Structures are given as C-alpha cells and as structure tokens.
Amino acid sequence: MHLFDRDTDLETLDGLTFRGRLTDEWSINGNPNGGYLLAVMLSAMMRCTDKKHAAIVTANYLSRTTISDSEIRVEPISKGSSFNRLQAGLFQDGREKVRAWGTFAPEGICPGDKRYEAGEPDIAPLAQCIPIPEIGSYTLYRNVDARLDPACAGWFSGRLSNESVHKGWIKFKDDRPADALSLVLMADAFPPPVLSSHGLVAWVPTIEFSVNVRAIPRSAWLKAQFRSRFITCGLVEEDGEIWDESGELVLISRQIAQFRQVG
Asked: Which of 145, 185, 225, 252 could tie 35 with a disulfide, CB 3.0–4.6 Å?
C-alpha cells in the first residue's frame, strides 16, 4: 500500500460515519495540508455514492485541525441521473473543523463539447526546475516531489517577482499513480503564489478550497500552474490548473485565503 492510501484510509463506523487518523506525513509547518484534509473527506464521500467521479469538491476550513484521530460524517443531499450531491463534516474532539461538499458523476461519462480557450502552461523542462526542499515540519515535501520553474523560484533567495505565479512539475515520490484523491492533494501542494511576489513573510491560511476534476491523468509527472491577481480586504484568491504530459487538462481549482503581511 502506498503511504497516501494508508493515510487516507478510513474505518467505517456505520454507513455514513467513518473514523481515521490524520498523520504527520502531509503537513505544512505542523498543520495538516488542506488538500490532504479534503482528500480524506472525499474518500469518505466516495464510499457513500454509486457515482464515483468526483466532479466538484469544495471545503470550508472552519478551525485548525491537528495530527490526531478524526471522524467524518457524511450526509446525502440529492441523487439524480446526472449527479449525486453529498456533504461531509470532519470532527476532532467533538468539534467540526472542516465542512465539505461533493458533486459526483458516473465514471467514464464525459458529455458535451471539448474546447480549450487556453493551452497548458509553458513550464521549463523538468531537469531545469528547482525541487521544493524538505524543511523541518514541512513534511508534505518529504512525500511529494514538487519542482518550481526557475522563473518563479527567485523568492527562495530573496529575489521577488512582479507576478504572483507558481508553476512547475509534481508527482508522488513513491510514484503512486494519480487519481481524484491525489489530484485534490496536488492542487494544494505548491506554496501560495503570493510568496513569489511577497516572500516568506506572507501569512495565507485557506478559508475555502474548490477542486474540479476533469480527467484522470495518463502520466506520472503533472504540470501545474497557480496564480493570484488580487489582494483586497485581507483576502487573496488562487486559481490553479493541472495538466498531464499528453496535454490533457485534469483539474482546475480555486482557493480563497486570508492575507496578512507579517513584520
């Protein structure tokens, strides 16, 4: 079993309630990564629907989570011929810490036209990109191989950019194949793009995170780009896209986070 599968595995308490333990393998500065939390909740919701394609998954982060046992409570919202909709709460010590909503479609069915009005991001070759290092309590990068294009990695050495953009390559270090659960993690695995323009002094905890899975990748390495354009009212958005090496769009995402300049 791959590490990510072990760390998103859940024990069924009843048909709609599950228990698992959040581990310290997917943390940012000691806090469970938001994509990891959503992947655990998605795992629970997928067990409660006969439609298994996770078309849209959204989370609201209500309170800080810890590396500890968690309970996931799932509630069906509606069931139709095209979509099933469910919601789930992640609880620790009796308190709800994350609320998520999922829209699920039948697997293998992708109706309608396919039209891209934008192409995949222009990213430097893998060999030229800079690995995000394993540092202290940032354990996520012990297990995820994320590499930044040199054009947006200047903040590593104090050289800031005029644009808040991160782009690069990503995969699991143990070569686990990508699926909907792992795409949710990877959509939150790059550092916030505002770091490229503001440096490490920016504090950006996620408030809301939404992922739209369009396809399952056909390559191990994935191309990703995340961009922020507006900082107002103490909030910043982050728009993301992930592509596989065949040029297929596999995911789009949006986050809303708090922004506070420290120091």
From this structure: 185
